[in-house]
């Protein structure tokens, strides 16, 4: 079956660098185990995550994520079958928006700010396409 791509955005509740490192460590281990690949985009206030893999394993992963108190107000943006993975080589690619070049993010800003919960699915997928091509 074609891979399933899931995208959601959420609000950070724990802004510490230690929390972020811990999220990436544990998440990458689970994702490697489950052949899930993807990216987690981190801004000062929000997470946007794109996950790709087996539909059943992606569902279980999303259940784990939903129960994590380090974020809140999770909004599902997309769940689709896709022909191929965008971040096929990354168990969880780490992208922090302050480290991106201004010209990369600029086309995706709303009222001058990165507001993933206001972005349509296609805009988020476009941003992920740009980021995945930079990652390769
Ligand atoms: C923003 C965010 C992204 C996460 N991404 C993943 C992920 O990609 N894969 C995963 O297994 N867990 C992810 N987690 C961690 C899970 O929510 C959970 O803490 C972890 O899987 C441990 O689950 P366990 O206590 O059942 O072992 C994420 C958590 C947060 C807050």
UniProtKB/TrEMBL annotation:
Signal sequence range: none
Segments forming domain BLUF: 3-93
Xref: SUPFAM superfamilies: Acylphosphatase/BLUF domain-like
Species annotation: Rubellimicrobium rubrum
A matching Pfam family: BLUF
Protein known as: BLUF domain-containing protein
GO MF annotation list: blue light photoreceptor activity; FAD binding
